[in-house]
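User: Sequence in, structure out. Go.
Assistant: Echoing your sequence, followed by the structure tokens.
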Amino acid sequence: MTYNAEVQFKFDATFTPSAFNPGFYTDDYVPEEHYLITAPAADLNAKQYFKLFEKFMLCVGMCPSSIRSGAMSLVFNDYVTEEEQRKICKEYEITMDEDLEEKFKEWKVRDEEWARMKTGPMGTVIDESGDDE
């Protein structure tokens, strides 16, 4: 037995002149647009669906930053538990705002340790450039 599935995103836009807007005021405007994006859907995973929907949103005029913001709003909203949000942060190596102060403390300790390691015998500073002169 075979299984076939297809997903479609369709967008149709037409401009109908009226008494208040009788025509086109610019030649930058397209009076009619039709987009149909199809893909085999039998084995698509969630990331592939999002990639497909991203292409559709670009076709209908969304800017990439708005698309990314919309995707992130699915993860970082009040309806998603903090535990789930933290799993995503760990997967993509993202730091949540609530954790920045702790990260800053870690960086400060690391910087102090690095400064101590750079100090040679009798308080001399080791040359990091690698030049022997």
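User: And one key feature?
Assistant: Helices lie at 46-59, 64-75, 82-92, 100-118.
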